[in-house]
Amino acid sequence: MAEEAQATVGTSSADVEAVVVSAMVPTIKCVFISDTHSKHKDIRFDDVEEEKAGPSVLFHSGDFSLAGSFKEISDFIDWLEEAPFTYKILIAGNHDITLHEESFNASFWTRRGHPIRPDFAAVQAYVRSKPSVIYLQDEQVTLEFPTLGGQLKVYGSPWQPTFGDVWAFNAERGEAINQIWNLIPEDGEIDVLLTHGPPLNIGDFVPHKKEHVGCADLARQVKDRIKPRVHSFGHIHENYGVFAKNDGDDATLYVNASTCTLLYRAENAPIVLLLPLDKAKAPIVVNAITQQVE
Ligand SMILES: [Zn+2]
């Protein structure tokens, strides 16, 4: 049938193929999770696995453990290596305490005692030991998609504004945390930004405190300087969802990908976006309603 149709309009099969290919926008399936807190085996990838064709990326915005024991970390990394995605990108969160020796030594873990004194170098080596898992700690990576002729640039940072002295990667609001955000490339160089904590007023609302707890410096830098196409984070389990600012000059799509609920059950679905490799084209949200925020 296809050959007859081509014959009637006088085109060769190569011409038809070229038209079809140019009409398609090469797109990467991007799946966002966060705050899995050692419940990763409960995650349901129903929406994701229906369509396995083509390259895909799983992004995790930190807190993959409860308290960063080597067993928790290695269990998660082994699971992640097997997960059916082309690339798996991971940052740490405040619970992944053994990924930051300085935080561990300064916090209650040394006063009350972690079960075993961690081997910090072994933990760092393990999160970087699997071929398809890319761990980012204030680092950038370029993901290549040779069959589609494109790439995506991703930057990841585990920090959030200080709350108590218990956890990892706390930085004081103001100049201290702003300097960490200053390391991130600017002007849309980055396609996907991962941080553990949210920016102020976006996916950062804590109902029982009636308070937005996100980082003001991060919000300002993402909007005015970094301008990623997607910014994904977690940390505030209560405000899972997809958000867009309605002020007209912020093109970033924001994702609070917290998988665990406030009660640490892995009940929130992975959020799926289709991200065109053409930077001029906006991401398509597959399985969530985009909430407009001020
Ligand atoms: Zn968490």
Describe this structure in words.
- There is one protein chain.
- The chain has a single domain, classed as 4-Layer Sandwich (Purple Acid Phosphatase, chain A, domain 2).
- The N terminus is likely disordered.
- The radius of gyration is 21 Å and the shape is globular.
- β15 and β16 form a beta hairpin.
- The protein has 294 residues and is α/β, with parallel strands linked by helices.
- The longest helix is centred in the N-terminal third of the chain and has 13 residues.
- It has a 7-stranded mixed beta sheet, with no helix packed on it.
List the SSEs and their pairings.
Blueprint: H1 2-9, H2 13-23, E1 27-33, H3 46-49, E2 56-60, H4 70-82, E3 87-90, H5 101-106, H6 108-112, H7 120-127, E4 133-135, E5 139-145, E6 150-157, E7 160-161, E8 170-171, H8 175-181, E9 192-195, E10 205-206, E11 211-212, H9 216-226, E12 230-233, E13 241-245, E14 253-256, E15 271-276, E16 284-285, E17 290-293
Parallel strand pairs: 1-2, 2-3, 3-4, 6-9, 7-8, 9-12, 12-14, 13-17
Antiparallel strand pairs: 1-15, 5-6, 10-11, 13-14, 15-16
The structure holds zinc ion.
